[in-house]
């Protein structure tokens, strides 16, 4: 039976046919927070023939390891302690803030990450689609490049006459900077 600041522990004792021991059979109850170092610096000696104990002044919402050892004739029984141990977690203290639910926190963070990945993929897909539609609407390459490299249009003929731009050119005049600029 576990509460916020206490826990009741029970165990069963088999009857043996051996002669009664001097000093009788007693028990020692070791307990401590799980993972505490050094282990089991807290223990309680129980009266003879007891088969239960109540541990008090425990912390709420904390894991504990509880072990029962036999004390025969004033000496601790050499049985491996892990064979007679149990783990327990005390209940949260009433009115206290509940601790963080790490499973729920993990699920929420996974959902947020998935949403961010979907948003990034949607942004990338919309950008890619916009580029495809813009290219399809324009018909491929820009107009000036298409006309420049097109093989479907014949070359323009130069004609036989001289262009009007060169009609005022006089080769006998000396070239000066002003003339060169005006001709340019």
State the helix count.
3
Mean pLDDT: 76
- Please tell me what the overall shape is: rod-shaped
Unreliable stretches covering 5 or more consecutive residues? none
- CATH homology group of the domain at 7-11 and 21-90: Immunoglobulins
Number of strands: 7
For the record, the CATH architecture of the domain at 7-11 and 21-90 stands as Sandwich
Rg, nearest Å? 47 Å
Q: Please give the largest β-sheet.
A: 5 strands, antiparallel
CATH topology of the domain at 7-11 and 21-90: Immunoglobulin-like
Secondary-structure-derived class: alpha+beta
Lay out the secondary structure:
Layout: E1 7-10, E2 25-33, E3 43-46, E4 52-55, E5 63-72, E6 75-76, E7 85-89, H1 102-138, H2 143-148, H3 177-183
Antiparallel strand pairs: 1-4, 2-3, 2-5, 5-6, 5-7
Protein name: Carboxypeptidase N subunit 2
Organism: Mustela putorius furo (European domestic ferret)
GO molecular function, one term: carboxypeptidase activity
